[in-house]
Amino acid sequence: MLNQDIVREATRLTRAGQLVEATALLQRMLQGGSAPRPQSRSAAQARLPRLDPPTIDATADVVDEREAPQISPARSAQGRRRSLPLDGLRNSSGLGLRSPITRAPLSPSDIVPEGTRFVAGTFSNAAGSRTYKLFIPSRCQGQRLPLIVMLHGCTQSPDDFAAGTRMNFLAEEQNCFVVYPEQPSGANQSKCWNWFRTGDQRRGGGEPSMIAGITRQIMRDHAIDPKRVYVAGLSAGGAAAAIMGATYSDLYAAVGIHSGLACGAASDLPSAFVAMRQGGGSKAIADGKTSVPTIVFHGDRDATVHPKNGDQIIEQSARATRPTTKVLRGRVPHGHAYTRTVLIDGAGRAISEHWNIDGAGHAWSGGSPAGSYTDPQGPDATREMLRFFLEHSLGG
Known about the structure:
This protein is α/β, with parallel strands linked by helices. The protein has helices spanning about 5-15, 20-30, 40-45, 75-80, 110, 160-165, 165-175, 205-220, 235-245, 270-280, 310-315, 380-390; strands at about 115-125, 130-135, 145-150, 175-180, 225-235, 255-260, 295-300, 325-330, 335-345, 350-355, 365, 375.
């Protein structure tokens, strides 16, 4: 049972701007500590450990698979790292991923197929400025093509996320553009999207306005089909993708969320910790009642973001419909088993998919070990997300 006294005290400290102290209290709660005795503010500060500036930060948890022990050196390095519960909680302002201690530098062949382009750009508005990387397929010849917006997890970069997901390689096959907005350390120490702040959960302001602005800038500058624009993300990026689907349902035709949380699952630092540990409130903060088709991937042994959050995302996305359910089970050869639950509307269209992956932790399913936080033992989240996206269009 969560200690409500500690949660209330952490909330008070957060509102007072004492995020470091609030983080220390939440860490003690998660480690089984009891509620603090009443004491003066100065005494409480003196007894709290010294911490880095807050950022709800996630450590990828690696699950030991006895049936399939073939784990890459990069993954093994992650598994040996000592990690804190939930999202690392080492810092505190995002929900993200800690990089392994040592990894080989990325080469261009890890990131993009030969003959394609991966170019840098910048977008600015009243909320701020963000850089991005844009993948341009080799066969774009003026026809309007789909666009996928990819939101990385904490500590990641566009290059790292592209290498790990291999989305550019699949996009080249399917002839799609892909854009990777980048969260700078100036906005969050661990480069996490600030999914839990109410100011970054609304249409027309904060980070959502910049992500939507990047999307629209690419649509203006390139031949993009406005009915086939999609958004996906991992961890903190997955939570941000959920926000984009809820607040810009007129812009994105479908959403992909890997190891993330529903829009409105948290509204401040204490509720973010609770949401990651046991699931959030999943209160929709949407611009209307339209539900955006959503595909979710979540490992059932994810110790960073509780798997219940995946269930809540699906519940939120299907709230306006009365779907029927189809359940399929499978296993990747020499890899993970999974349960795929498809929700189908009255017209026979799949409005959401939930891939629950047996034995998987907090990492991109089926990704490449060239990038951080991937689980090559599948299923292939990138291929399945892209397949799901291209089955949906705005108004279709």
